Amino acid sequence: MPKVGTITTAFADKKKAPETGQIDYFDTTYAGLALRVSCGGRKSWTYMYRVRGKSRRMTLGMYPHMSVAAAHERWRQARDLVQAGRDPAAQEGDGKAPTDFGSVFAEWLLRDQAKNRSRELVRRSITNHALPAWQHRPISEIGRRDCLDVIDAVADKGTPIAARRLHSYLHRLFAWSVGRGIIEHNPLAGVERPAQENPRERVLTDSELVRVWSAADRLGWPHGPAYQLLILTGARREEIGQLRWSEIEDGTIHLAGTRTKNGESHDIPLSAAARVLLDKLPRIGESDFVFSLSGRVPISGWSKAKRDLDDFACITEPWVVHDLRRSCATGLQKLKVPLTVTEAVLGHTAGSRGGIVGVYQRHDYADEKRAALEAWGAHVTALVEGRAPGKVLPMRKA
Question: Which site in 11, 161, 224, 249 is 20 to 30 Å from 312, CA atoms measured?
């Protein structure tokens, strides 16, 4: 029974049928999940588990009809039933899809949210706040009062925006369930969201940026330099957190549309300060990830890293990681960078580049973006080194 780490699509595609019998390739990341390859060329996903003291095996689906991602979702559903003391094979035996909230939630993620770029945020919100209370309850028994109890609990923690988003996610899940004939009514129909979500306006001052930079030095590898690169580039957290060495070429980060929020490719020129920072970073074997502990996956644990960073920085006014992006944009404006160039640096397609202007204005501002981020990098370096930032020459108008 070979163990192969995380099974990928490439791995599943290239496995050839054995001459006789069958081979189970076990995925060590998803305990009990295996890709079974039979001598006739048939490939299937199987799940081995123990319930009530007995070892069981069930077939989840056939590959490639059931993709790797779908197998992972189906594995989570079966594992959750096992953890609740229920036999997932018996649940399928009645010929009906399970209708407990946890199973419906997993199916909804697979069928309705597969192409949602914020899918992980949606999954995490419901998993953290609703799933613990409802996981094994029939979804048809969850009423309006149940929903409000869960949403209000989030709002009462002082996070009304998180409560507002949870309301939206659950509303869509229940509406989808009505459309699939799983439930008759949406318990959140007609229920207003709990708080108005206002745009953030927090911008870190120069002294606060210096504190964050110094705190990042104390934080160390890997989150420390990741925070510093966020300051220098104005990029989004996941754009830097999931950065690959193969995306960096000729002093520029090249992000494909699959890596950006708006789905369009985006180039981020690296200032001298950013290049020096990257040159000092360690490389983990043959891993392509710039920021990683294992080499197999990019860094996670941003929340804990942010708490440690706050302890080191001692900034009294609350701030979030995305405020670094806004601080970079504001800093560029203070350096007299034209708004169109600032928006190009951030990869914005709305604002001054939206509408009909965006259709006909296809200039990529590559040179202007590089000059802007070079000026910003010099400004940040001067602040960190305790020097008065030098005079910046005005950029030509875009």
Answer: 161
CATH of the domain at 81: 3.30.160.390
**Rounded Cα–Cα distance for residues 270 and 249 (Å):** 10
- What would the two tokens of residue 205 be? 């001052």
Co-location of 300 and 335 in the same domain: yes
* Averaged confidence pLDDT in the chain: 87
User: CA 306 to CA 262: how far, in whole Å?
Assistant: 26
Flag whether 18 is in a domain.
Answer: yes
Which domain range does residue 129 map to? 97-198
Query: In the chain, where does DSSP find H-type helix?
Result: 9-14, 68-83, 88-93, 101-111, 119-129, 131-134, 144-155, 160-179, 206-219, 223-233, 237-241, 272-279, 302-313, 322-334, 339-346, 355-360, 366-384
The model's pLDDT over 233-273, given as tens digits with 9 standing for 90+, comes to 999 999 999 999 999 999 999 999 889 888 889 999 999 99
Q: Tell me: the pLDDT tens digits for 60-101?
A: 888 988 899 889 998 998 888 888 777 777 655 444 566 789
Report yes or no: 166 and 150 within 8 Å, Cβ to Cβ: yes
Specify whether 182 is located in the same domain as 83.
no
Residue 249 backbone phi and psi in degrees, to 5: -150, 135
Asked, as a colleague might, if the bond just before 64 is cis with ω within 30 of 0, I would say yes
Q: Are 215 and 337 in the same domain?
A: yes
Query: What's the CATH number where 289 sits?
Result: 1.10.443.10
- Looking at the predicted structure, is the pLDDT value of residue 332 above 80? yes
Q: Are 277 and 225 in contact (CB under 8 A)?
A: yes
Whether residues 234 and 365 fall in one domain: yes
pLDDT at residue 34 in the model: 93
Same domain, 216 and 129: no
- Do both 65 and 189 map to the same domain? no
